[in-house]
Specification:
By secondary structure, this protein is an alpha/beta fold. It has two domains: about 90 residues, Rossmann fold (3-Layer(aba) Sandwich), CATH 3.40.50; about 120 residues, Rossmann fold. About 45% of the residues lie in helices and about 15% in strands. Strands 1-11-8-7-5-6 form a six-stranded parallel β-sheet. A three-stranded parallel β-sheet has the order 3-2-4, with helices on both faces. Helix 2 crosses helix 10, helix 6 crosses helix 7 and helix 6 packs across helix 10. The chain is globular. It binds nicotinamide-adenine-dinucleotide.
Amino acid sequence: MTAQIIDGKALSRQLREGFKTRVAALVEQGVTPGLAVILVGDNPASRVYVGNKVKACEECGVRSFHIALPDDTPQAEVLATIARLNADPAVHGILIQLPLPPHIDGRSVLEAISVHKDVDGFHLYNVGGLVVGNTIFPPCTPYGVQLLLDTTGTEVAGKNVVVVGASNIVGKPMALMLLQREATVTICHARTRDLAQHTILADILIVAAGRPGLIVPQMVKHGAIVIDVGINRLPDGKIVGDVDFNGVKEKASWITPVPGGVGPMTVTMLIENTLRSAERALRLRHADDYQEWEAPILKGA
Ligand code: NAD
């Protein structure tokens, strides 16, 4: 069997086309969606990620506010920047590029972002919402994976899903989202003994470990759907995922490539969350009773 390719680039393009209509409708009613991206320090990979996000905003008609702060910016100043953006009606989404320099407490910074502008979905409120299946902004990477899975037409309920990687930004929220869709979910991580014993049972295998070549064909069930979230730069500069793509594609039914799989979807879902926030701002503007609108949005409307 040679797997069918799940094309994240194509799905992203299609979704971004749809965004243009939504942006036009918002602009017509006086709301230009805006995303603020804060970068503290000079991490070269972070600079590339921020650049991609700003470019995607431009492409979709979303206004971007790129705030670059020096590496030694005191935490209080980062918090003050967030407070200013929280209060700015032109800003519908606030994203702080991770990782932050070591003198800054990442949790305090993430908690400072208004839950209604937390388009990365990392605020505790949104994380808690995921646990009870009721979040405002699903975190972008798992959200994108979910849509990629949907393109295969596979019913997730009842499937054995194995998520390799248990980070707060990918593995854990991914597992929670698929649990919500009634899959039987196993989470593996660096301390898991005999990883293959788990992965071989997966109908859907999602890998987000950051280890090139971690998943080889012997670890994959015939006909499994394999989603490779990993992004690794090899010494020769080549970008690869965590899955031995050429080997595993001969066993899987569907597989995502790297690049061109999950990567483009992450940025696309960030724009989706920003548009949802801007659409909410518009509803709020038209609502006579603020309370009436507060309740549904907190339920993820
Ligand atoms: P992380 O380092 O925070 O977490 C990695 C997780 O993998 C940990 O839970 C760790 O225990 C587990 N792990 C490490 N080695 C393992 C092994 N040998 N066996 C089993 N589990 C192992 O990383 P992260 O931020 O979750 O990112 C994971 C990968 O996904 C990275 O390659 C990252 O670049 C990529 N990523 C891609 C996107 C995207 O848009 N495609 C977004 C975020 C992260």
